[in-house]
Amino acid sequence: MCDQTFVAATFGPCENCSTPSPLINIYIKSEPINYCSLCVEMMACQGLQKGESLVSLKRESESLKKKLEEERKKLCDVELNQVAEKIEVLGALSIKTRRVLKGHGNKVLCMDWCKDKRRLVSSSQDGKLIVWDAFTLNKEHGVSLPCTWIMTCAYAPSGCAVACGGLDNKCSVIPLSMDRNENLAAKKKSVAMHTNYVSGCTFTNSDMQLLTSSGDGTCALWDVESGQLLQSFHGHTADVLSLDLAPSETGNTFVSGGCDMKANVWDMRSGQNIQSFESHESDINCVKYYPSGDAFASASDDATCRFYDLRADREVAVYQKDSIVFGASTVDFSLSGRLLFAGYNDYTINVWDVLKGTRASILFGHENRVSRVRVSPDGTALCSASWDNTLRWATDFVTENK
Amino acid sequence: MDNGMSSKTHNANSILLARRTVLQLRTEASRERMKVSKASADLMNYCTEHAMADPLLVGFPTSDNPFKDKKPCTIL
């Protein structure tokens, strides 16, 4: 390919490759383009003859966004709470705190249940990780890690290990041993490496893979044994604060939410962003799938929680009240999906009726922000972690009339 | 000169970003969607089917409660 000879009126840095050279001054759809001859050739080869430029691309993305909105609006033939009018109103809930777990010396940032429905792991700001036995309130393991602000922790499906990560930009896996004298911190193995803090982590269906979200704007899938990056997920334009794996065994998707106010659904194998939802007005702090896997909820600093249906591809409910002005930091569903537990920065947990959109109950007790709420795997208990250094258990039971 | 150079590469990056956004939006626009009425009905069905098995919703008997207080309860 030889360059054509042309009369160059200008010489300077090319707008595409920045190398100083004689520039061909051309106009594409009346927009001046000053490229060097090589870039003009490349542009022609890349099929940009139709005049693709920054302006035309922006125009197309705007029209596509508008088209998407119209399509989504067309499907909104009825609101979720209207459909839910025929369902019975919830009876009074008697969910009460039964135990308070004290042991952390600083803000508890995260907790996760073990699949045995009995143990849980919690992490705090002072670098401590504690594994508790729910029934006996025993602290089974305590690990002191060198990094502060362990923002996320997760129990492995086998119950034999825990993962944690935070300001050290890493996510590490710690195998749990029955030997109390063993120094667990020494056996810590770094798996994930990000370029900013790790905000969320979860094991996939086995102990072998770890999914992480980070302040560097990406999510990533790692092989635990080798520490290899298996897949990375790009698309967020700001810190990713939370992620959740789809509940189905066959499903290979997860949802993430972040400071760009977007919630994205990803395909784990291809790394592609399948769906995106943008209706929150501030950072999304937490995302959680509905038990059936067809929907998910999000909690945000804009003091609302929202419910998105994946098949309708839109937001179907907003959980808000004029009296709630503090940001929501965490959400989780009850086993049937009828209740949504949301922890707020005003120290309360609001229990929402998912279908009707009304508040069913408020749980008081914490003396500082609620950082995490999680329903136990069998649905019998709700555990909440807070900046007041404690965790609380709550259950709902009816006294038998004998 | 440095500022000039970085703004030109920024321009190239913006085009790449815009192109990626357009491709992403094209795939999203071509997706199949369901009506909210049908999706809501499915969500409601899931709730009602599993409601009786939801211990936080319907409660469960004190005798089965592993967190039950061991001390006798007093009526206030």
Automatic annotation (TrEMBL), chain A:
It comes from the Eukaryota. WD repeats lie at residues 101-133, 191-232, 233-276, 277-318, 330-362, 363-392. GO terms for biological process: signal transduction. Keywords: Repeat, Transducer, WD repeat. The keyword Metal-binding does not apply. The keyword Repeat applies. It holds the Pfam family WD40_Gbeta. May interact with RGS9; this interaction stabilizes both proteins and increases RGS9 GTPase-activating protein (GAP) activity, hence accelerating the deactivation of D(2) dopamine receptor-mediated signaling. Belongs to the WD repeat G protein beta family. This is Guanine nucleotide-binding protein subunit beta-5b-like. The gene is gnb5b.
